[in-house]
Amino acid sequence: MSFDLQPILTGHLIYLRPLQENDFESLYTVASDDLIWEQHPQKDRHQKNIFQKYFQSAIQSKGALLIQDVKTNEVIGSSRYYELDSNGEYVFIGYTFLARKYWGGVFNHELKKLMINHAFKHVSEVRFHVGEKNLRSQKAMEKIGAELLEKIFDPIKYPDLDVRFIYSVKNKKASR
């Protein structure tokens, strides 16, 4: 069974579905909050023209998901699967952002749980890139039990980013 990078996933709090072109305005409403990006290497992503490039990249990735609040149907953010290992051993989850009122707990935890559980049907490990200065995301990684794998600086592969950490969650049930 091939890995569906744009599944529909439903939890108690959130609903994830493939990101579509017509989601731009509703997602930009969330992304236009400059405080969402204050610890991110690309701090100006709240500007519409910058966000437009991010959004187009998300659409082209064929792994981006829109996140909605189950109770209100409100668009609250986005995340994506990317860099599926050619041997099918791991996939990255990232490019995640949530509206500030959904920060700090159960919504992000459920998001990661849904995405990781889906990934573990296909791979034995899920990885995350986290910016060195993004303390919020580093704490989120600790909360889900992710382990720090390595610190990277690769200006050729990632010219718009500074030092990043790679975190890993391994499927303890995997018999690979």
Features:
globular; alpha+beta; Aminopeptidase; 176 residues; 4 helices; single chain
**What is the name of the CATH architecture?**
3-Layer(aba) Sandwich
User: Unreliable stretches, pLDDT < 50, 5 or more residues?
Assistant: none
**Helical coverage, percent range:** 25-40%
CATH superfamily: Gcn5-related N-acetyltransferase (GNAT)
Mean pLDDT: 91
Tally of DSSP helical segments: 4
Count of distinct structural domains: 1
- Judged by helices, strands and strand pairing, the structural class is alpha+beta
**Distance linking N and C termini:** 15 Å
Tell me the radius of gyration. Answer: 15 Å
Shape: globular
Binned strand content: 25-35%
Main sheet characteristics: 8 strands, mixed
- The CATH class designation is Alpha Beta
- Count of strand segments: 8
Q: Could you name the CATH topology?
A: Aminopeptidase
Physical arrangement of strands within the biggest beta sheet: 1-2-3-4-5-6-8-7
Written as H for each helix and E for each strand, in order along the chain, the element string is EEHHEEEHEHEE
Tell me about this structure:
The protein is of the alpha+beta class and about 180 residues long. Helix content is about 25%, strand content about 30%. Helix 3 links the parallel strand 5 and strand 6. It is globular, with a radius of gyration of 15 Å.
The gist of it:
This protein is an alpha+beta fold. The chain has four helices and eight strands, in the order ββααβββαβαββ.
